[in-house]
Amino acid sequence: MIETTELFPGVRLHFIRDPRFKQSLMTVQFLRPMCREESAKNALWSSVLLRGSRNYPDLRDITIRLDSLYGAGMGAMVRRVGDVQASGMSMTFLADRFALAGDAIFRPMAEFVGELLLEPRLDQGIFRKDYVEGEKKNLISAIESRRNDKAVYAMQQLLARMCREDPYGLSRLGEPEDIANLTAAELYDYYVRVLKESPVEIFCVGDLDADTVAAGLMPLAEALGPRKGYAPGKIRFHDAGGGTWAEQQPLTQTQLDLGFVSDVTLDHPLCIPMRLFNLIYGAGMQNKLFRVIRETMSLCYDISSAYHAGKGLLTVSTGIENAQTDRVREEIFHQLTLCQQGDITVEELNSAREAMHSSLRATFDSGSNMEGYYFNGLLTGSLLPPEEYHARLDAVTLEEVVEAANHVRFHSEFLLRGVKA
Questions:
Q1: What radius of gyration do the chain's Cα atoms show?
Q2: Under 8 Å CB-to-CB from 101, ≥6 apart: which residues?
Q3: Inter-axis angle of helices 346-363 and 367-380, nearest 10
Q4: How far apart are CA 202 and CA 10, in angstroms?
Q5: In the Cβ-directed half-sphere of 48, how many Cα atoms lie within 13 Å?
Q6: Computed from CA positions of residues 361, 391, 13, 85, in that sequence, does the dihedral angle turn out positive or negative?
Q7: Strand, helix or coil at 364?
């Protein structure tokens, strides 16, 4: 059960007590609208804060302090949910009851987080340039490593083109050129603005006392000050029209990615049936695309689908021989048509249903996964208690899954064609 308390106007604490976890988790996240002008800055500022603060001026001092808190861990975080980009810090630490007699962990941990967030190490009133340049290099390297994974790259290109008028097409980590051009002064000014005006969501999961957590975080909330709180809004897909795009690279195989659209988003009554359809079509253990195109027809190396529920999108990703492009594309469409015509068995539905039940149960065996479940649900306004989610899953009929499939229509294609070097 999640308990939500507004510590200060615009600063909310979401507390989930679970005595199963020896290690507790806390995240402090600042919410911003997803946009090109801010995405790189949001991916950077919290990483810079973890380089040093007033009393812990470098990584060595920060590490020593974390070790003194029974080996606590800390990291920067940046994520995207719908049209919101969230950035901040995550912390893992031992629950107080596991510490030695007389020792407390949560309160000093909360104080440490407050210092890192509010008292960064500065040079002439701005972030240290060497800290910023170091984190810029790290971030650009992370982006480039994702681009070197051609399956990831092709999907990014497909979504960027499908969503060229929608925030969902933007990179969560920003663009390398925007990162490279960012100065320490610009990043510091942006950080000050984030702290002053952005809604703050704090999540805490573990074997903790709710009053202790709220009291320990109140000084941070008061230091941040009041701001306008976050209210979930309707997430819509801004469709700029579909198309077909191709790119050549010296690769041994070709990547064919297809994008489909639907009106079935998180608030649609067919959202859960659509999730089940996605498992049956291309995401489950025995999905149709893999079973037919990979195993029976031997036309691809790998193939899978994904449902992007916030925007109502469905994508298919497959690695193939260049000569098989047309046949694979045709069979992807053919399998969709068969599903829309009702060619889905009760066994396939039950298998997908059990996979979703199992995945949901596994979510609540991990503090970080639990935090993600509640964070996504609260930010999108689609949060379901787990017991209600299980009940709704059990109530889905075969007819509803077929109906959901019939909401899917083709939109765009991106072909990363492999050619000899």
A1: 23
A2: none
A3: 110
A4: 11
A5: 32
A6: positive
A7: coil
Task: Enter the DSSP assignment of 332.
Answer: H
Largest CA distance in the chain: 70
Task: Convert the pLDDT of each residue in 56-101 to its tens digit.
Answer: 999 999 999 999 999 999 999 999 998 999 999 999 999 999 999 8
Higher pLDDT residue, 373 or 231? 373
The token pair at 420 is: 């000899």
State the burial class of residue 366 (Cβ atoms within 10 Å of its Cβ: 0-12, 13-18, 19+): middle
Rounded (10°) angle between helices 106-118 and 210-224: 20
Nearest-5° Cα angle at 160, 414 to 326: 10
The encoded tokens of residue 102 equal 């007389």
- Identity of the residue numbered 323: A
Distance CA 14, CA 257 (A): 38
User: Residue 401, class by beta-carbon neighbours within 10 Å (0-12 exposed, 13-18 middle, 19+ buried)?
Assistant: buried
As a 3-state breakdown, the chain gives helix, strand, coil percent values, each rounded to 5, of 50, 25, 30
C-alpha 254/C-alpha 194 separation (Å) is 42
DSSP codes joined into one string, 78-97: EEEETTEEEEEEEEEEE-GG
- The three-point CA angle 207-377-367 to 5° equals 25
Length of the chain: 421
User: Helices 150-162 and 129-148 meet at what angle, rounded to 10?
Assistant: 100
Tell me, yes or no, if the pTM score tops 0.85. yes
- Strand order of the β-sheet with 2-8 is 2-8, 11-17, 200-206, 23-33, 84-94, 73-81
The three-point CA angle 402-405-409 to 5° equals 150
Interval 304-317 mean pLDDT: 97
Burial 44-63 (b: 16+ CB within 10 A, else e): bbbbbbbbbbeebeeeeebe
* Position 141, amino acid: S
Collapse the DSSP code of 243 into the 3-class scheme (helix H, G, I; strand E, B; otherwise coil) and give the result: strand
Instruction: Return the SS3 of 184.
Output: helix
Binned at pLDDT 50, 70 and 90, residue 1 comes out as confident
Q: Which amino acid is at 101?
A: A
Q: For residue 116, what are the CA distances in angstroms to 67, 75, 105, 294, 371? A: 16, 11, 17, 50, 22
Instruction: Give dist(CA 255, CA 301) in Å, integer.
Output: 10
